[in-house]
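A.,

Following up on our hallway conversation. Structure tokens first:
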């Protein structure tokens, strides 16, 4: 579809976020796949464009920067109750997830210290198991973010706490072995 017009006047309603174009002598041309084109002309044609994208598309916290999340939480009426909970738990989720590399390094060191050759596959399997359980716990914690209690905040940090506890136990076991 192609539109051409001799003249265009515009009106914008900031309250409704609607842009209205008044096309004077517009020519509208459509082209089909098999090269058949159709043209329509009119004296005048109003064309309204809704610019309020906040209601037409779901707002997701993971598409926002940290600063934008804080601003959205500080703006009254911008988010509904469910979105407020999602946005409020997004920053702790990011911080918790960022610590995953440190947590896995803490787990990997005692598993790599093992000196016996026959135990290398056991350490590898244990590492994969711990990482899988860690990410399953993170997915479960992420699903609990819909709850507006303190539970999501606790569950977001729980995989890190448990994995660090396992890492400390493995370190202790590795030092007593060697």
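Then the amino acids I'd put at each of the 178 positions:
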């Amino acid at each position: 579809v192609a539109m051409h017009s001799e003249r265009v006047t515009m009106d914008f309603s900031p309250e409704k976020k609607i842009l209205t174009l008044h096309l004077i002598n517009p020519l509208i041309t459509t082209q089909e796949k098999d090269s058949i084109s159709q043209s329509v002309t009119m004296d005048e044609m109003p064309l309204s464009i809704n610019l309020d994208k906040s209601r037409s598309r779901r707002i997701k916290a993971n598409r926002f920067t940290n600063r934008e999340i804080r601003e959205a939480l500080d703006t009254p009426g911008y988010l509904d109750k469910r979105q407020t909970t999602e946005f409020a738990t997004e920053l702790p989720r990011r911080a918790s997830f960022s610590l995953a590399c440190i947590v896995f390094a803490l787990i990997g060191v005692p598993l790599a210290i093992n000196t016996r050759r026959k135990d290398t596959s056991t350490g590898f399997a244990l590492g994969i198991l711990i990482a899988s359980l860690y990410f399953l716990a993170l997915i479960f914690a992420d699903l609990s973010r819909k709850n507006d209690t303190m539970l999501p905040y606790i569950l977001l940090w729980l995989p890190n706490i448990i994995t660090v506890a396992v890492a400390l136990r493995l370190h202790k076991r590795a030092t007593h072995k060697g």
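The longest helix spans residues 151-177. Curious whether your intuition agrees with the design.

B.
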